[in-house]
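User: I'm putting together notes for a lab meeting next week and I want to include a structural view of one of the chains we've been expressing. I don't have a solved structure, so I'd like a prediction I can at least talk through. The sequence is below, exactly as it appears in our construct file.
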Amino acid sequence: ALPCVPFGGAAGHGWFAIPEVDAQVWVEFEEGDLRRPIWTGTFWQKKEDVPEDAAKTPPTTRLLRTPAGHVLRFDDAKDEESVLLQHPKGAQLSIDRDTASRLGVLPQAIDDTLYDAFGQRIVSTIFTQLNQYRVILEVKPEFAARPDALAHIYVQSSAGSPVPLNSFSSLEQTTMPLAINHQGQFPSATISFNLTPGVALGEAVDAIGAAQRGLDLPPSVRADFEGTAQAFAEALGSEPALVAAALVTVYIVLGILYESLIHPITILSTLPSAGIGAFLALRICGAPFDVIGLIGMVLLIGIVKKNAIMMIDFALEAQRERGMAPAQAIYQACLLRFRPIMMTTLAALFGGLPLAFGDGTGSELRRPLGITIVGGLLLSQLLTLYTTPVVYLAMDSLGRRLQRLRGVRAAPEAT
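Assistant: Thanks for the context. Below is the predicted structure for the 415-residue chain, given as structure tokens.
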């Protein structure tokens, strides 16, 4: 059959191009979608033999082959792009350092000679009354376009004698990248991708990391993330410091307000149950723990501890001003503060439900935040009503023992 490449059309009309018989045709196929009225593709006429590793890759490919022969496969990504695809021919100059050292040629002298020949070095500036002109040092254009011109270049040795460049170097014809990108003054190759619906960035980062570890890259090759993946990795790297700073800040503020070093720990004891509830909710709902989930965890630090604050604030006031025993004070606090605790917790919980179960544009960003808040509040509400009084009594007993120890140590000094 004669291949045809349509470029557009609609019901009843359209136009297409008929390539020659020996032309090759590539068409993008949309699997499972037969209602598309337009099929796009490309065709070309064979002009010369192209090396296999420099052949054009179809836009819908899901396999990328590196120059070292490694194959990278993205099962959960789309729109992959890579600068590792090689097209134009080039010349690679390899320097034999041992031979150059025996001939007395320094590496800096080689760099300077090649830069003088092909780097367009500015050696002087001619000033006139109206303008100025830069003097550029370079070889003639006919030599710059010929790789064999390197055989006529001489490098000055440390003894002052000229040494032919080809006496300690070799020239190899190879294919080169279309563009050489750099990162921190090092040549780099970029592989970019987009995520398919339902796949989290954290999962893609973990998959790429596992593939990288399986490649057994040499020590001279390093892989880093850029763009959104880099921001995600940096956010996860600073997560422990961020949570620790939040906890220290809360402890200092509570210690100043309650004039105690013990009872802020009682209030912070409610946070582990909230964290466990948030992680369980994310796991049950299949949501990833990403940057948005981390924000939800930080919000939980401020929301969950209000249950313990309501009870401990009343209990400390009853102990200090009314002279109640610790057990009686915390018992009365639980009875009188139960309704406010339930009201505030349910208000925050129902406020997070639209985020957790909402749908629409941007829901993939809001869902981890809502799920984290709802899950953390549910489990912490069930546990803190029972654990906070126990921790309060334990911390109060510990504080009394510490006071007695300080009193026993201070008594001999006073005598």
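A couple of points you could mention at the meeting. The longest helix spans residues 363-414. The chain has a mean pLDDT of 75.

User: Perfect, that's what I needed.
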